[in-house]
TrEMBL record:
The lineage of its organism: Bacteria, Bacillati, Bacillota, Negativicutes, Veillonellales. Has three domains with a flexible linker between the domains II and III and assumes an 'L' shape. Domain III is highly mobile and contacts RuvB. It comes from Megasphaera hexanoica. Residues 151-200 are annotated as: Domain III. Homotetramer. Forms an RuvA(8)-RuvB(12)-Holliday junction (HJ) complex. HJ DNA is sandwiched between 2 RuvA tetramers; dsDNA enters through RuvA and exits via RuvB. An RuvB hexamer assembles on each DNA strand where it exits the tetramer. Each RuvB hexamer is contacted by two RuvA subunits (via domain III) on 2 adjacent RuvB subunits; this complex drives branch migration. In the full resolvosome a probable DNA-RuvA(4)-RuvB(12)-RuvC(2) complex forms which resolves the HJ. Its main location: cytoplasm. Gene3D superfamilies: 5' to 3' exonuclease, C-terminal subdomain, DNA helicase RuvA subunit, C-terminal domain, Nucleic acid-binding proteins. GO terms for cellular component: cytoplasm; Holliday junction helicase complex; Holliday junction resolvase complex. This is Holliday junction branch migration complex subunit RuvA. The RuvA-RuvB-RuvC complex processes Holliday junction (HJ) DNA during genetic recombination and DNA repair, while the RuvA-RuvB complex plays an important role in the rescue of blocked DNA replication forks via replication fork reversal (RFR). RuvA specifically binds to HJ cruciform DNA, conferring on it an open structure. The RuvB hexamer acts as an ATP-dependent pump, pulling dsDNA into and through the RuvAB complex. HJ branch migration allows RuvC to scan DNA until it finds its consensus sequence, where it cleaves and resolves the cruciform DNA.
């Protein structure tokens, strides 16, 4: 198993990146938080997890050991595979995830991508005593809304789309999907509008 990769980021995609290690390019699926901190041309180390199935071999990459270790915990829960775990980690920080699980905060957990009430209950039941409790007072003060609310560019784009008549429920998933490929609020709004328009 590959424990980590250290090399140069050569390409960044919607939910993945290419990292060149001594002339060999590896494709790694990454969370939204890791994706947002990658820079093309920069030497980077990614902690990795290799998922092997009958028809596929997928590499998942994490910029921090904290996110990597929480990912490993999440996939021990019945019903949570690597794809679901990495998507959930892209919606909140590791400390916010730990806080929600340790406090049995179903309001936060059920807002995570792909996490329904049953899966949220399993998360709490199986991980509550394993995740620990964040010690940062700023994290402890996070509200339910703060933990899952869009930030920065995404928040501005959401406000603009809502002013055009789109609901948060239909606009936010599109914004989150398009955000990694956009470098400004304007380009994000345009990309989201194209996607929303094609779906209507």
């Amino acid at each position: 198993m590959i424990g980590y990769l250290k090399g140069t980021i050569t390409h960044i995609f919607e939910n993945a990146c290419f990292i060149d290690v001594n002339g060999v390019g590896y494709r790694a699926i990454v969370s939204g938080s890791t994706l947002g901190n990658l820079t093309i041309g920069k030497e980077t180390m990614l902690y990795t997890y290799m998922s092997v199935s009958e028809n596929d071999i997928t590499l998942y990459g994490f910029l921090t050991q904290d996110e990597y270790e929480l990912f490993l915990l999440l996939i021990t829960v019945n019903g949570i595979g690597p794809k679901l775990a990495v998507n959930a980690l892209g919606a909140v920080t590791p400390d916010q995830m730990r806080l929600a699980i340790s406090q049995s905060n179903m309001s936060v957990l059920t807002k995570l991508p792909g996490i329904g009430k049953k899966t949220a209950n399993r998360l709490v039941l199986e991980l509550k005593d394993k995740v620990g409790t964040p010690g940062d007072s700023d994290v402890m003060a996070v509200t339910v809304e703060d933990a899952t609310a869009p930030q920065g560019m995404a928040a501005e784009a959401l406000a603009a789309l809502q002013s055009l008549g789109y609901s948060e429920q239909e606009a936010l998933p599109v914004i989150q999907k398009q955000a990694a490929a956009c470098d400004s609020v304007e380009s994000l709004i345009k990309a989201a509008l194209r996607s929303l328009g094609s779906g209507r």
